[in-house]
Design goal:
single chain, Rossmann fold, eight-stranded mixed beta sheet, 11 helices
């Protein structure tokens, strides 16, 4: 069944790929472009090293992992929630407002103890929170299983980020297949982004088609991104004429999210 009205305005986009492919850089640039365009945006840093947080120029003051631990170790914390919706608890305790983006940091993975019930509670809270934003961007761990296990079960688009190698394409196919087996609800679009491409990578584009991967775009090798990474500068400070920023704008256009200035329209 097709969603209608405001429900249909909400988009949940997850970035996945093996470590080092540049999925965090892609997520940060997308957040930069979309927030500048006036979209009401939630970014979820779901990778334990919290790379997206630093790429956005933020500091990890509060994380969902810390809230989860408190709920497990101190029963009073759970009692104090009382009748408050877990969505509002997460918003108050774990969401950082930074540079026009609302940022939710998952932080540490599970430790000792039974996290199952708390994880389901927090997952419900994240999904409820995402419904209040036009767009939710998720920077995933290297694996894709956590989308269903830790974060959110509804996706609109899964973007597989690969380096410009055949090995990278094979990993993207593997991640796509894993996602299909782990119960993400409803149909969703799967697309490939090739990162750090030199020239056109025509052979890899043909390989991607043969493997049944929809190519959303190519991000060229960008000396500015390499420089920012070397100096530890936030990705969101990349200049507008950076090849990576221009390429990401084209990708967003293909996703139906044009990089044009618009008035923010919060979703209730």
């Amino acid at each position: 069944m097709k969603e209608t009205g405001k429900e249909n305005q909400r988009r949940v986009i997850a970035m996945a790929g093996k470590g080092g492919t540049g999925k965090t850089t892609l997520t940060a640039i997308m957040a930069k472009v979309l927030s500048q365009g006036g979209y009401n945006l939630l970014a979820v840093d779901a990778d334990p090293p919290i790379s997206l947080t630093y790429a956005l120029g933020a500091e990890p003051k509060n994380t969902l992992g810390e809230l989860r631990t408190r709920l497990i170790e101190d029963p009073r914390e759970k009692r104090e929630i009382g009748d408050r919706h877990i969505r509002e608890v997460i918003r108050k305790e774990a969401v950082i407002h930074h540079g026009g983006v609302d940022l939710l940091i998952l932080g540490q993975a599970e430790g000792p103890g039974c996290f199952c019930g708390v994880n389901e509670l927090l997952k419900f809270g994240i999904e409820s929170l995402a419904q209040q934003y036009e767009i939710t961007l998720i920077d995933c761990e290297a694996g894709i299983e956590q989308i269903n296990r830790r974060v959110i079960s509804r996706l609109d688009t899964l973007i597989l980020v690969s380096d410009a190698t055949l090995k990278g394409l094979r990993t993207a196919v593997y991640l796509r297949d894993i996602a299909e087996k782990h119960g993400v609800e409803k149909e969703y679009r799967v697309g490939l982004v090739l990162n750090r491409v030199v020239n056109s990578a025509a052979d890899l584009q043909e390989q991607a088609r043969t493997m049944g991967l929809e190519l959303l775009g190519l991000i060229p090798a960008d000396d500015r991104v390499a420089e920012f990474d070397r100096l530890g500068r936030p990705t969101v400070l990349l200049p507008e004429d950076s090849p990576s920023v221009l390429a990401v704008k084209e990708i967003l256009n293909r996703l139906g999210l044009p990089a044009v200035s618009r008035e923010k329209s919060p979703i209730q």
